[in-house]
Amino acid sequence: MNILILGSGGREHSLAWAVMQNPKCDKLIVAPGNAGIAQIADCAAIDINDGGTVVQFAERNNIDFVIVGPEAPLAAGVADRLREAGVLVFGPSKAAAALEASKAFTKEICDACGAPTAAYGHFTDAVAAKAYVQQQGAPIVVKADGLAAGKGVIIAETVAEAEAAIDDMFGGEFGAAGAEVVIEEFMRGEEASFFILCDGENVLPIGTAQDHKRVGDGDTGPNTGGMGAYSPAPVLTDEIAERALAEIVRPTMAEMAKRGMPYQGVLYAGLMIENGLPRLVEYNVRFGDPECQALMMRLGGQAFDLIHAAAEGRLSEMRVNWAEDHALTVVMAAAGYPGDCEKGSVIGGLDALAEDSSHMVFHAGTALRDGQVVASGGRVLGVTARGDTLAQARDRAYAMVDAVDWPEGFCRRDIGWRALT
Ligand code: AMP
Ligand code: GLY
Which ligand is nearest to the CA of 271? Predict the structure, then answer.
């Protein structure tokens, strides 16, 4: 099969790595890809958010199957365009991608299907939003409705902070994403991510993970896209996962189908778990990054069969072969991340690292310059290892981190702490 993966991060490198291990893959192209992906697949610099361009590229390259990595092309309807052109694709339609692209839509779906989530109000003007905040009190969570690159969520400790966030959002700080605002009850508990493949009708859980969103050790400093992850997440026990499927995921899928927008792709459910009860924080319509890197390390080549079956509507035939293993990813980022960071610093030591089914350095923001790997973004490497225990996976990952020669980079030294202490 000729396969095209859309995206350029650690998520897409790990997906490409898993696909390449599956004998069904004859040719793999990743668009646009990065320096690490270029070592295992062809890369093509095309505009992946333009449906016409992607369809044309797929047709010219005899692509049989497209796997969409990030949310932007999904929200732009690229999966719809591919389906219209008769190309098999993994990823939801533009309509179904509203589960990530609109927080108000997700809340409405939860209401309709009875999925447990935070109480909320949905507003299109600041006066009504502030009145709601005054009535509810703090802490309270203020969210821009649309896609804001992970930045449109303010956890306000005081009513004044919430009011300022409301003014910022309606004042245009998050552009069109903030034209509508969702205000939510602050949920306590421990967060975990649950990844479920969906084929429009059937669901198949493929793993759990925990992310580390803050930039600094001990969960300090500003929020990031994710500084590290591990899988499985011990807080998401089998019993809680079963409950989340029964009370949240399956009802959501049934509601989407009922509305004529069946969901096909991976559903990433962010859950808050308190006293053994899961509640939905948010849905994403793609794999999490770096969570995907830890998941792919555990699933290996079977990940491709599962993803392919989801796209073909055959999930009911599939089973996941679980190993009793653990995987952990440490993100190495460029100094300054998540703010502005310098590009172009040289990353050494990568060639000397032995990569195998338990040790991989997935690339995110990297490029090749004069034969050398250089940093080209904020999150740069996802150093990922697998082990029989989480402690072993962590020790292996940090041993690799220590062998990377990149003075301009940094990482958190405590990935996995919640599950290890
Ligand atoms: P979201 O983009 O909706 O996932 O929000 C980003 C982060 O904000 C989540 O991962 C949570 O850590 C936090 N968060 C969002 N909504 C809530 C909530 N209602 N209660 C507590 N924390 C929340
Ligand atoms: N790691 C969080 C995300 O991918 O949204």
Answer: 1
Which pLDDT belongs to residue 150? 65
Averaged pLDDT of the chain: 95
pTM for this entry: 0.95
The Cα 191–Cα 208 span in angstroms is 11
Residues with CB under 6 A from ligand 1: 118, 141, 153, 155, 184-187, 191, 270, 281-282
Residue whose Cα lies nearest atom 3 of ligand 1: it is 282
Q: Domains of the chain, with CATH numbers?
A: 2-92 (3.40.50.20), 125-179 (3.30.1490.20), 190-317 (3.30.470.20), 326-420 (3.90.600.10)
Instruction: Give the model's pLDDT for residue 173.
Output: 81
Quick check: 390 and 228 in contact, CB under 8 A? no
Measure 279 CA to ligand 1 centroid, in angstroms: 11
Question: Which residues are CB-neighbours of 295 under 8 A, at least 6 positions away?
Answer: 14, 195, 206, 207, 209, 231, 287, 303, 327
Strand (E) positions, 187-325?
Answer: 190-199, 203-211, 214-216, 220-223, 228-231, 264-274, 277-284
Q: What number is the average pLDDT over the span 226-251?
A: 97
280: pLDDT strictly greater than 70: yes
Asked if residue 282 has its Cβ within 6 Å of ligand 2, the reply is no
In this predicted model, which residue has the larger pLDDT, 182 or 411?
411
Average pLDDT of span 54-76: 97
